[in-house]
Amino acid sequence: MLSDLNYKHLHYFWAVARAGSVTAAARQLGMTAQTVSGQISRLEQHIGRALFTQQGRGLVLTEAGRMALGYADRIFQLGEELQEMLADEQLDHTLRLSSGISDVLPKSIAYRLLQPALALPQRVRLHCNEGTFDQLLHELSSHSLDLVLADRPAPAAAQQTLQSYLLARCPVMIFATPALAERYQPGFPHSLQRAPLLLPSRDNVLRGQLEHWLEERGIRPDIVGEFKDGALLHTFGEQGAGLFPAPAFAASDITGNGKLCLLGLVEGVEEQYYAIANRRKLQHKAVQAIIQHADSE
Prior knowledge:
42% of the residues lie in helices and 26% in strands. It is α/β, with parallel strands linked by helices. The protein has 3 domains: 2-86, Arc Repressor Mutant, subunit A; 91-168 and 273-296, D-Maltodextrin-Binding Protein, domain 2, CATH 3.40.190; 170-271, 3-Layer(aba) Sandwich (D-Maltodextrin-Binding Protein, domain 2). Strands 4-3-5-10-6-9 form a 6-stranded mixed β-sheet, sandwiched between helices. A hairpin with a 2-residue loop joins strand 1 and strand 2 (58-61). The termini are far apart. GO terms for molecular function: DNA binding; DNA-binding transcription factor activity. Belongs to the LysR transcriptional regulatory family. Residues 5-62 form the HTH lysR-type domain. It holds the Pfam family LysR_substrate. Keywords: Activator, DNA-binding, Transcription, Transcription regulation.
């Protein structure tokens, strides 16, 4: 039965899969290769499946081995986190906040939104995990996260278990290198006609707003790039690949080094930033601090 799984054997398997060979894993474990190989054989006998297959002089994972490795990664990484947490001398005086950051949210904005929790008088241990909106909501629903920061509220189907809070609104601006700004700033926004434009990918709420804004004004830019990662979009913009949108909150950071300048305001378009929490965790002090700070502004 699975409940009888020997986790020491599983750890030897994990070590071999990560090291790439029995010899390398044995060296890391301070054991003989014969001992490690024997422990893995026992694990394979117990579960009734081969985890490795011989390929030339090396070992490769079978399909069962690949699946087992995924679970082993999570098991032993959680074990390492547990050891680290229990070794913390200030554990009893520490407030832990596990937050999920939507991969479309600008990093500087995420910091601003989490700042009220970090300002609490109690010591806060922050754990941030970046992912897709759907992935993070799944982790929030399963109580793996205390909070998710995103550019949209939880969908209606999830509102029985999840609560969304609007934390901030922010105008959107268009930025460019000085050379591009000199060419396209006169006559903005109609100067964007056929201008090279970098946009966030279609899973970003801002993308739809920008397309609607352009369509309303009859502007058809030349979309030269689409980016899921906002930092990558910024990098391409800084190198002069095209004009690009960004929240006004980040304007000083974007223009501070002189490589980029403000082209103009995208009037009527704004980004919205939400905190989403599991209704069972609304009493978490750090979650309350983030929500209450937004209410006070």
